[in-house]
Fold this protein.
Amino acid sequence: MEYIGCDILSSEKKKFLDEGFMKFTAKNHTIFSSGNIIIYRSGIDELLSDTYLDNNHADAFTILLDEKSKFCPNKYYNFLYARYCIGYKARNLLTKLFIKHINIEAVKSCNIILQLVINGVH
């Protein structure tokens, strides 16, 4: 499969992705899931084709980054991930605090704050 950036991948990484594409052939195959976050094969196609970025893409990336940082804590910067819950805005519901762990101490101790921005808004 051709996708943006495939020409700069190492042969091992390209082989890994190609084998994944052969294994997960249907658009509704689940590639990753954690709680209510699900990435289907169609989501990987969207991500690699540079046509669409979804909340689930960013959430999955953050979950994987967090898991990886647990294995090698000295190799990664502390980060905060603040996801904007668009459903509450779309439904004109009262603001709800989703992320209780973000406080002044957490902000002062982190090196990076990840804020999801899609189509120029957050």
